[in-house]
Amino acid sequence: MRMTGSWHLYRTGERWRRPYRQLRASIETDQWVAVCFNAPVVETYREPDRRRHPGMGRLGPDLCDVHADLGQVVNLLLSYPDPDARLRDVLLDQRAMCGVGNVYRCEVLWATELSPWAHVGDLSHRDAVLVVNTAARQLRANLHHARRVTVDDVPGGLAVYGRNGQGCPRCHDTIEVRRVGEHARLLYWCPGCQVRLDPRLADDTREMDPHPAASKYLADLPWRRADAG
């Protein structure tokens, strides 16, 4: 896919939002058509040959599959080879889990209130379970719908993706966007409430003591109250 490729899902007979000349691949059923536009590289293979591909044979469980072993995905996160890798990048690593694309990584991070700058090695077991369960729930809820919805009460159905400069539906801070990673994909997040495990905040607290009001606010956060209990 790289930076230019994208998949669209249409009902059979529905008008495409991009011209036919940008088509690179399509998958059709009686009711749906999945169309890949502008992908610079498209590789196909027969099922008996799938493990010959250098990138295949090492894929993690498919979170869209209701029979996927989510416990295995949790263990893959907790034993990730590079503990300093950013969680935002690990979510796109198909060796850890399959199914999470750029939209869902933004939505999963927002739903779990985790910072995109968090290191995967800093995840607790509870955090890893929360990330995996949230990703699986969002993916499976949207399997049979052309329009992706992760939050019901936001126009467009998405909490942060594509909403740069708009208000966060949870804390009302301003959603930001930045290109990150090897392929410079767009990352959307809320700097106001996605602060869990953010190493940048840890650096700030070492440099200066927080204001007493800020200390009380942080101590009252639900996950900190739970940890204290």
Chart the SSEs and their pairings.
Layout: E1 6-11, E2 23-28, E3 32-37, H1 70-78, H2 87-90, H3 102-112, H4 125-141, E4 176-180, E5 185-189, H5 199-207, H6 212-219, H7 222-228
Antiparallel strand pairs: 1-3, 2-3, 4-5
Helix pairs in contact: 1-4, 3-4
Structure, described:
With 229 residues, the chain is of the alpha+beta class. The chain has 2 domains: 1-44, no CATH class; 60-197, Helicase, Ruva Protein, domain 3. It is built from 7 helices and 5 strands, in the order βββααααββααα. A 3-stranded antiparallel β-sheet has the order 1-3-2, with no helix packed on it. It has a two-stranded antiparallel sheet with strand order 4-5. α1 crosses α4. It is globular. It starts with 5 loop residues before the first strand and ends with a helix. 23% of the residues are buried. The model has no long low-confidence stretch (mean pLDDT 86).
Index terms:
alpha+beta; two-stranded antiparallel ribbon; single chain; 7 helices; 28% helix; Helicase, Ruva Protein, domain 3; 229 residues; three-stranded antiparallel sheet; globular
